[in-house]
Amino acid sequence: MKRETSDLEYKREPSKTYLKTVSAYANYGTGQILFGVDDEGNPVGLDDPRKACLGIEHAINDSVAPVPRFTLALDDETKTVTLTVFEGDSKPYLYRGKAYRRSDSSTVEVDRAEYRRLVLKGSNTTFDALESAQQNLSFNTLSAALIDKLGIKALDDNALVSLELKKADGGYTNAAALLADENSFFGIDVARFGDSINVILFRRTLERQSVLRQLSGAMSVFDDYYTYEEIIGFERVKKESIPREAFREAVANALVHRRWDVNGSIAIRMFPDRIEVTSPGGLPDGMSEEAYLSGGPSIARNPILANLFFRLGYIERFGTGIPRIIESYADRAASPRFRIDSSCITVILPTDEAGTLSTEERAILRAVPQGALMTRKEIEHAVGTSKDKTIRLINSLVEKGFIGKTGSGRATKYHRC
User: Fold this and answer.
1) Are residues 230 and 267 in the same domain?
2) Which of 15, 24, 207, 374: disulfide with 100, CB 3.0–4.6 Å?
3) pLDDT band at 144, cuts 50/70/90?
Protein backbone atom coordinates (compact mmCIF):
# COMPACT_ATOMS: atom_id res chain seq x y z
CA MET A 1 0.00 0.00 0.00
CA LYS A 2 1.10 3.59 -0.44
CA ARG A 3 2.65 5.68 2.30
CA GLU A 4 0.74 8.04 4.56
CA THR A 5 -0.08 11.38 2.95
CA SER A 6 -1.93 14.58 3.77
CA ASP A 7 -5.24 12.82 3.10
CA LEU A 8 -4.40 9.28 4.27
CA GLU A 9 -3.47 8.05 7.76
CA TYR A 10 -2.93 4.56 9.19
CA LYS A 11 -3.80 3.40 12.71
CA ARG A 12 -3.30 -0.04 14.25
CA GLU A 13 -5.96 0.70 16.85
CA PRO A 14 -8.49 3.53 17.22
CA SER A 15 -6.62 5.51 19.90
CA LYS A 16 -8.06 8.96 20.58
CA THR A 17 -5.24 10.77 18.70
CA TYR A 18 -7.00 10.08 15.40
CA LEU A 19 -9.67 12.61 16.41
CA LYS A 20 -7.16 15.39 15.72
CA THR A 21 -6.98 14.13 12.14
CA VAL A 22 -10.78 14.07 11.96
CA SER A 23 -10.68 17.79 12.83
CA ALA A 24 -8.00 18.37 10.18
CA TYR A 25 -9.93 16.67 7.37
CA ALA A 26 -13.18 18.41 8.27
CA ASN A 27 -11.39 21.78 8.27
CA TYR A 28 -9.15 21.47 5.22
CA GLY A 29 -10.12 18.65 2.89
CA THR A 30 -11.66 15.19 2.73
CA GLY A 31 -9.39 12.37 3.88
CA GLN A 32 -9.31 8.81 5.16
CA ILE A 33 -8.07 7.00 8.26
CA LEU A 34 -7.51 3.26 7.95
CA PHE A 35 -7.75 1.31 11.21
CA GLY A 36 -6.11 -2.10 11.58
CA VAL A 37 -3.19 -1.06 9.37
CA ASP A 38 0.45 -0.66 10.42
CA ASP A 39 2.69 2.34 9.67
CA GLU A 40 3.88 0.72 6.44
CA GLY A 41 0.34 0.34 5.14
CA ASN A 42 0.08 -3.41 5.78
CA PRO A 43 -3.25 -4.74 7.10
CA VAL A 44 -2.86 -6.29 10.56
CA GLY A 45 -6.57 -6.39 11.37
CA LEU A 46 -8.67 -5.47 14.40
CA ASP A 47 -9.90 -7.95 17.02
CA ASP A 48 -13.50 -6.78 16.68
CA PRO A 49 -13.99 -4.46 13.67
CA ARG A 50 -17.71 -3.97 14.26
CA LYS A 51 -17.15 -2.90 17.86
CA ALA A 52 -14.37 -0.59 16.63
CA CYS A 53 -16.81 1.04 14.17
CA LEU A 54 -19.29 1.71 16.96
CA GLY A 55 -16.56 3.19 19.18
CA ILE A 56 -15.25 5.45 16.38
CA GLU A 57 -18.75 6.75 15.65
CA HIS A 58 -19.43 7.53 19.31
CA ALA A 59 -16.01 9.17 19.78
CA ILE A 60 -16.50 11.54 16.82
CA ASN A 61 -20.05 12.42 17.89
CA ASP A 62 -18.94 13.08 21.47
CA SER A 63 -15.55 14.77 20.91
CA VAL A 64 -15.58 16.80 17.67
CA ALA A 65 -17.70 19.93 17.48
CA PRO A 66 -19.54 20.54 15.30
CA VAL A 67 -19.83 16.91 14.20
CA PRO A 68 -18.54 16.56 10.63
CA ARG A 69 -20.00 14.31 7.96
CA PHE A 70 -18.24 10.94 7.85
CA THR A 71 -18.68 7.34 6.73
CA LEU A 72 -17.33 4.02 8.04
CA ALA A 73 -16.59 1.01 5.83
CA LEU A 74 -15.66 -2.43 7.18
CA ASP A 75 -13.55 -4.96 5.25
CA ASP A 76 -14.43 -8.44 6.60
CA GLU A 77 -11.52 -10.08 4.80
CA THR A 78 -8.74 -7.90 6.23
CA LYS A 79 -10.67 -6.92 9.40
CA THR A 80 -9.87 -3.26 8.73
CA VAL A 81 -12.08 -0.19 9.01
CA THR A 82 -11.92 2.83 6.70
CA LEU A 83 -13.11 6.14 8.13
CA THR A 84 -13.75 8.83 5.51
CA VAL A 85 -14.16 12.38 6.86
CA PHE A 86 -15.57 15.02 4.50
CA GLU A 87 -14.59 18.66 4.49
CA GLY A 88 -17.40 20.69 6.01
CA ASP A 89 -18.82 24.19 5.71
CA SER A 90 -19.28 24.85 9.45
CA LYS A 91 -15.61 25.56 10.20
CA PRO A 92 -13.79 25.45 12.53
CA TYR A 93 -14.23 21.81 13.56
CA LEU A 94 -12.66 21.44 16.98
CA TYR A 95 -11.33 18.53 19.00
CA ARG A 96 -11.13 19.43 22.68
CA GLY A 97 -11.47 23.10 21.76
CA LYS A 98 -8.61 23.11 19.24
CA ALA A 99 -8.51 23.07 15.43
CA TYR A 100 -6.05 20.94 13.47
CA ARG A 101 -4.62 20.67 9.96
CA ARG A 102 -2.47 18.18 8.09
CA SER A 103 1.19 18.90 7.39
CA ASP A 104 2.23 16.21 4.91
CA SER A 105 1.58 13.01 6.90
CA SER A 106 1.39 14.68 10.33
CA THR A 107 -1.46 16.40 12.13
CA VAL A 108 -0.69 19.71 13.87
CA GLU A 109 -2.66 22.37 15.71
CA VAL A 110 -3.35 25.53 13.71
CA ASP A 111 -1.89 28.84 14.87
CA ARG A 112 -3.96 31.89 15.84
CA ALA A 113 -3.89 33.47 12.39
CA GLU A 114 -5.00 30.27 10.70
CA TYR A 115 -7.72 29.76 13.32
CA ARG A 116 -9.12 33.21 12.49
CA ARG A 117 -9.14 32.25 8.80
CA LEU A 118 -11.12 29.12 9.60
CA VAL A 119 -13.67 31.22 11.47
CA LEU A 120 -14.00 33.48 8.42
CA LYS A 121 -14.51 30.48 6.14
CA GLY A 122 -17.14 29.08 8.46
CA SER A 123 -19.05 32.36 8.34
CA ASN A 124 -18.49 32.67 4.55
CA THR A 125 -16.63 35.95 5.11
CA THR A 126 -13.34 37.16 3.64
CA PHE A 127 -10.71 39.30 5.33
CA ASP A 128 -11.36 42.30 3.13
CA ALA A 129 -15.07 42.22 4.07
CA LEU A 130 -14.43 42.49 7.82
CA GLU A 131 -14.98 45.83 9.53
CA SER A 132 -11.68 47.66 9.75
CA ALA A 133 -10.05 48.61 13.02
CA GLN A 134 -9.28 51.91 11.29
CA GLN A 135 -12.28 54.17 10.75
CA ASN A 136 -10.67 57.59 10.29
CA LEU A 137 -9.97 57.19 6.58
CA SER A 138 -9.68 59.43 3.52
CA PHE A 139 -9.90 58.38 -0.14
CA ASN A 140 -8.37 61.06 -2.37
CA THR A 141 -6.39 58.54 -4.46
CA LEU A 142 -9.35 56.19 -4.86
CA SER A 143 -11.74 59.03 -5.64
CA ALA A 144 -9.49 60.36 -8.41
CA ALA A 145 -9.20 56.87 -9.95
CA LEU A 146 -12.96 56.27 -9.85
CA ILE A 147 -13.73 59.66 -11.40
CA ASP A 148 -11.14 59.08 -14.12
CA LYS A 149 -11.92 55.43 -14.93
CA LEU A 150 -15.60 55.02 -14.13
CA GLY A 151 -16.94 58.53 -14.40
CA ILE A 152 -18.20 58.56 -10.82
CA LYS A 153 -18.95 62.16 -9.89
CA ALA A 154 -18.27 61.84 -6.17
CA LEU A 155 -17.20 59.07 -3.79
CA ASP A 156 -20.04 59.51 -1.32
CA ASP A 157 -21.45 57.07 1.23
CA ASN A 158 -23.79 55.49 -1.32
CA ALA A 159 -20.88 54.75 -3.66
CA LEU A 160 -18.78 53.36 -0.79
CA VAL A 161 -21.60 51.01 0.28
CA SER A 162 -22.18 49.96 -3.34
CA LEU A 163 -18.49 49.09 -3.69
CA GLU A 164 -18.65 47.15 -0.36
CA LEU A 165 -16.09 49.52 1.15
CA LYS A 166 -18.56 50.60 3.79
CA LYS A 167 -21.23 48.66 5.64
CA ALA A 168 -24.80 49.88 5.65
CA ASP A 169 -24.47 50.75 9.34
CA GLY A 170 -21.56 53.06 8.55
CA GLY A 171 -18.39 51.07 9.30
CA TYR A 172 -15.50 50.90 6.81
CA THR A 173 -14.27 47.43 5.73
CA ASN A 174 -10.68 46.23 5.50
CA ALA A 175 -10.94 46.68 1.72
CA ALA A 176 -11.63 50.38 2.35
CA ALA A 177 -8.61 50.63 4.64
CA LEU A 178 -6.39 49.04 1.97
CA LEU A 179 -7.60 51.63 -0.55
CA ALA A 180 -7.43 54.57 1.85
CA ASP A 181 -4.78 57.27 1.47
CA GLU A 182 -3.16 56.12 4.72
CA ASN A 183 -3.44 52.81 6.55
CA SER A 184 -1.46 50.49 8.84
CA PHE A 185 -0.83 47.67 6.35
CA PHE A 186 2.51 46.46 5.06
CA GLY A 187 2.87 47.02 1.33
CA ILE A 188 5.59 46.53 -1.27
CA ASP A 189 9.34 46.37 -0.72
CA VAL A 190 11.22 47.10 -3.97
CA ALA A 191 14.94 46.45 -4.24
CA ARG A 192 17.23 46.55 -7.28
CA PHE A 193 20.37 44.45 -7.13
CA GLY A 194 23.60 44.25 -9.06
CA ASP A 195 25.04 40.90 -10.08
CA SER A 196 24.17 39.41 -6.67
CA ILE A 197 21.89 40.06 -3.69
CA ASN A 198 24.93 41.45 -1.85
CA VAL A 199 24.94 44.49 -4.14
CA ILE A 200 21.88 46.68 -3.47
CA LEU A 201 21.69 49.54 -5.96
CA PHE A 202 18.28 50.95 -5.05
CA ARG A 203 15.56 50.37 -2.46
CA ARG A 204 12.09 51.81 -2.02
CA THR A 205 9.36 50.86 0.45
CA LEU A 206 5.73 51.45 -0.52
CA GLU A 207 3.59 50.84 2.56
CA ARG A 208 0.90 52.31 4.82
CA GLN A 209 -0.67 53.90 1.75
CA SER A 210 -3.38 53.08 -0.78
CA VAL A 211 -2.75 49.90 -2.74
CA LEU A 212 -3.43 52.02 -5.85
CA ARG A 213 -0.43 54.20 -5.00
CA GLN A 214 1.60 51.09 -4.31
CA LEU A 215 0.85 49.76 -7.79
CA SER A 216 1.62 53.14 -9.35
CA GLY A 217 4.89 53.42 -7.40
CA ALA A 218 6.03 49.96 -8.47
CA MET A 219 5.26 50.75 -12.12
CA SER A 220 7.29 53.98 -11.83
CA VAL A 221 10.36 52.04 -10.65
CA PHE A 222 9.87 49.52 -13.46
CA ASP A 223 9.75 52.29 -16.06
CA ASP A 224 12.98 53.76 -14.71
CA TYR A 225 15.00 50.57 -15.11
CA TYR A 226 13.32 48.22 -17.59
CA THR A 227 12.16 50.55 -20.38
CA TYR A 228 14.45 52.27 -22.86
CA GLU A 229 14.42 54.04 -26.22
CA GLU A 230 15.98 52.62 -29.37
CA ILE A 231 16.59 54.62 -32.51
CA ILE A 232 15.14 52.75 -35.49
CA GLY A 233 15.59 54.63 -38.73
CA PHE A 234 14.65 58.22 -37.93
CA GLU A 235 12.45 57.41 -34.95
CA ARG A 236 12.94 56.80 -31.26
CA VAL A 237 11.02 53.63 -30.35
CA LYS A 238 10.18 52.89 -26.71
CA LYS A 239 11.03 49.31 -25.76
CA GLU A 240 10.80 47.11 -22.67
CA SER A 241 13.39 44.54 -21.60
CA ILE A 242 10.53 42.85 -19.69
CA PRO A 243 6.91 43.06 -20.91
CA ARG A 244 5.37 45.93 -18.95
CA GLU A 245 2.00 44.22 -19.02
CA ALA A 246 3.48 41.10 -17.40
CA PHE A 247 4.98 43.15 -14.55
CA ARG A 248 1.73 45.08 -14.00
CA GLU A 249 -0.27 41.84 -13.91
CA ALA A 250 2.18 40.26 -11.47
CA VAL A 251 2.08 43.20 -9.04
CA ALA A 252 -1.70 43.75 -9.33
CA ASN A 253 -2.35 40.05 -8.73
CA ALA A 254 -0.02 40.07 -5.74
CA LEU A 255 -1.91 43.00 -4.21
CA VAL A 256 -5.31 41.44 -4.85
CA HIS A 257 -4.59 37.84 -3.86
CA ARG A 258 -2.03 38.11 -1.05
CA ARG A 259 -2.84 37.39 2.60
CA TRP A 260 -3.30 40.80 4.18
CA ASP A 261 -3.47 39.35 7.69
CA VAL A 262 0.23 38.46 7.42
CA ASN A 263 2.65 41.11 8.66
CA GLY A 264 4.88 40.95 5.62
CA SER A 265 5.47 42.87 2.41
CA ILE A 266 5.20 41.91 -1.23
CA ALA A 267 8.84 41.60 -2.29
CA ILE A 268 9.87 42.89 -5.71
CA ARG A 269 13.48 41.92 -6.42
CA MET A 270 14.97 43.48 -9.55
CA PHE A 271 18.07 41.95 -11.15
CA PRO A 272 19.86 42.66 -14.44
CA ASP A 273 18.37 39.48 -15.96
CA ARG A 274 14.98 39.20 -14.19
CA ILE A 275 12.39 40.54 -11.77
CA GLU A 276 10.97 38.37 -8.97
CA VAL A 277 7.60 39.30 -7.44
CA THR A 278 6.83 37.36 -4.24
CA SER A 279 3.51 37.69 -2.42
CA PRO A 280 2.73 36.38 1.10
CA GLY A 281 0.34 33.45 1.17
CA GLY A 282 0.26 30.37 -1.04
CA LEU A 283 -2.61 29.36 -3.29
CA PRO A 284 -6.15 29.95 -1.99
CA ASP A 285 -7.76 26.86 -0.50
CA GLY A 286 -9.37 24.78 -3.20
CA MET A 287 -7.07 25.93 -6.01
CA SER A 288 -4.50 23.56 -7.48
CA GLU A 289 -1.18 24.62 -8.99
CA GLU A 290 -2.40 23.38 -12.36
CA ALA A 291 -5.52 25.53 -12.17
CA TYR A 292 -3.45 28.55 -11.10
CA LEU A 293 -1.10 28.26 -14.07
CA SER A 294 -3.80 27.50 -16.63
CA GLY A 295 -6.22 30.22 -15.59
CA GLY A 296 -8.80 27.83 -14.17
CA PRO A 297 -11.72 28.94 -12.00
CA SER A 298 -10.57 31.89 -9.92
CA ILE A 299 -10.84 31.79 -6.14
CA ALA A 300 -10.41 35.37 -4.98
CA ARG A 301 -8.88 35.67 -1.53
CA ASN A 302 -9.96 39.32 -1.37
CA PRO A 303 -13.00 39.51 -3.67
CA ILE A 304 -13.97 43.11 -2.83
CA LEU A 305 -10.49 44.36 -3.65
CA ALA A 306 -10.33 42.14 -6.75
CA ASN A 307 -13.66 43.47 -8.02
CA LEU A 308 -12.52 47.08 -7.67
CA PHE A 309 -9.21 46.39 -9.46
CA PHE A 310 -11.21 44.72 -12.23
CA ARG A 311 -13.59 47.66 -12.59
CA LEU A 312 -10.66 50.08 -12.69
CA GLY A 313 -8.97 48.01 -15.40
CA TYR A 314 -5.92 47.03 -13.33
CA ILE A 315 -6.67 43.33 -13.74
CA GLU A 316 -8.60 41.49 -16.44
CA ARG A 317 -11.34 38.92 -15.95
CA PHE A 318 -10.70 36.94 -12.76
CA GLY A 319 -8.34 34.00 -13.23
CA THR A 320 -6.66 35.28 -16.40
CA GLY A 321 -3.66 36.99 -14.80
CA ILE A 322 -1.14 34.15 -15.11
CA PRO A 323 -2.13 33.17 -18.68
CA ARG A 324 -1.82 36.85 -19.65
CA ILE A 325 1.68 36.99 -18.17
CA ILE A 326 2.64 33.88 -20.13
CA GLU A 327 1.03 35.24 -23.31
CA SER A 328 2.96 38.53 -23.05
CA TYR A 329 6.18 36.50 -23.52
CA ALA A 330 4.91 34.70 -26.64
CA ASP A 331 7.25 36.55 -29.01
CA ARG A 332 10.28 36.55 -26.68
CA ALA A 333 13.09 34.07 -26.27
CA ALA A 334 12.67 33.84 -22.49
CA SER A 335 9.61 32.59 -20.59
CA PRO A 336 8.18 33.53 -17.18
CA ARG A 337 8.54 31.03 -14.34
CA PHE A 338 6.56 30.43 -11.16
CA ARG A 339 7.49 29.13 -7.71
CA ILE A 340 4.58 28.05 -5.53
CA ASP A 341 4.69 26.82 -1.95
CA SER A 342 2.44 26.89 1.08
CA SER A 343 3.58 30.31 2.32
CA CYS A 344 4.21 32.39 -0.83
CA ILE A 345 4.01 32.61 -4.60
CA THR A 346 6.85 34.00 -6.73
CA VAL A 347 6.50 35.15 -10.33
CA ILE A 348 9.85 35.34 -12.16
CA LEU A 349 9.97 37.63 -15.19
CA PRO A 350 13.18 37.26 -17.23
CA THR A 351 14.62 40.04 -19.36
CA ASP A 352 15.38 39.61 -23.05
CA GLU A 353 19.01 38.95 -22.17
CA ALA A 354 17.95 36.00 -19.99
CA GLY A 355 16.41 34.36 -23.03
CA THR A 356 19.73 33.72 -24.72
CA LEU A 357 19.93 30.05 -23.75
CA SER A 358 21.71 27.60 -25.98
CA THR A 359 19.83 24.82 -27.76
CA GLU A 360 21.35 22.28 -25.35
CA GLU A 361 20.33 24.35 -22.30
CA ARG A 362 16.77 24.50 -23.62
CA ALA A 363 16.83 20.71 -24.06
CA ILE A 364 17.78 20.33 -20.39
CA LEU A 365 14.89 22.60 -19.36
CA ARG A 366 12.43 20.61 -21.47
CA ALA A 367 13.66 17.38 -19.84
CA VAL A 368 12.78 18.63 -16.33
CA PRO A 369 8.98 18.93 -16.03
CA GLN A 370 7.53 21.65 -13.79
CA GLY A 371 7.12 20.27 -10.27
CA ALA A 372 9.39 17.23 -10.82
CA LEU A 373 12.62 16.31 -9.05
CA MET A 374 15.25 14.60 -11.22
CA THR A 375 18.77 13.31 -10.67
CA ARG A 376 21.66 14.27 -12.92
CA LYS A 377 21.67 10.77 -14.38
CA GLU A 378 17.96 10.93 -15.20
CA ILE A 379 18.46 14.25 -16.99
CA GLU A 380 21.50 12.88 -18.80
CA HIS A 381 19.51 9.90 -20.12
CA ALA A 382 16.55 12.09 -21.10
CA VAL A 383 18.70 14.51 -23.12
CA GLY A 384 21.33 12.07 -24.40
CA THR A 385 24.37 14.17 -23.52
CA SER A 386 27.54 12.98 -21.83
CA LYS A 387 27.98 13.14 -18.05
CA ASP A 388 30.46 16.05 -18.18
CA LYS A 389 28.36 18.09 -20.61
CA THR A 390 25.18 17.44 -18.60
CA ILE A 391 26.88 18.66 -15.42
CA ARG A 392 28.17 21.77 -17.21
CA LEU A 393 24.75 22.58 -18.68
CA ILE A 394 22.94 22.01 -15.37
CA ASN A 395 25.42 24.22 -13.50
CA SER A 396 24.90 26.96 -16.08
CA LEU A 397 21.12 26.78 -15.68
CA VAL A 398 21.43 26.80 -11.88
CA GLU A 399 23.62 29.90 -12.06
CA LYS A 400 21.10 31.62 -14.37
CA GLY A 401 18.23 30.81 -12.00
CA PHE A 402 16.33 28.43 -14.31
CA ILE A 403 17.01 25.28 -12.30
CA GLY A 404 17.30 24.76 -8.53
CA LYS A 405 18.79 21.87 -6.64
CA THR A 406 18.09 20.07 -3.39
CA GLY A 407 20.21 17.66 -1.38
CA SER A 408 23.92 17.02 -1.79
CA GLY A 409 26.28 14.41 -3.18
CA ARG A 410 24.53 11.40 -4.68
CA ALA A 411 21.22 12.62 -3.20
CA THR A 412 21.27 15.82 -5.28
CA LYS A 413 18.14 16.40 -7.34
CA TYR A 414 17.15 19.23 -9.68
CA HIS A 415 13.89 21.03 -10.33
CA ARG A 416 12.54 23.85 -12.50
CA CYS A 417 12.49 27.23 -10.77
Assistant:
1) yes
2) 24
3) very high
